[in-house]
Amino acid sequence: MAGGKAKGSIVIKLVSMAGTGFFYVTRKNPKKQTKLMCMKHDPVVNTHVLFKRDKDVLSIISPT
Q1: pLDDT tens per residue across span 14-51
Q2: What Cα–Cα distance (Å) separates residue 31 from each residue in 2, 8, 17, 41, 63?
Q3: Its pTM surpasses 0.90
Q4: Contact 26, 52 (CB under 8 A)
Q5: Cα-based angle 43, 47, 50 (whole degrees, multiple of 5)
Q6: Which Pfam families match (predicted)?
Q7: Does 1 have pLDDT greater than 60?
Q8: Where are the domains of the chain?
């Protein structure tokens, strides 16, 4: 079924490095040990800035 939550993923918060306090929330695969940073649009400064992983918001654990 389309649009379902990914099992076993972690919901994380990406915070703008421009210091505006704007953030995105996204999901990440916990098996991959990578630092999550990406360029996204910050509407407060109206430009693309670097967003860095701040903290884990929610763990979605798959039932076994």
Answers
A1: 999 998 989 998 888 888 777 788 899 999 999 999 99
A2: 23, 9, 26, 27, 16
A3: no
A4: no
A5: 95
A6: Ribosomal_L33
A7: no
A8: 10-59
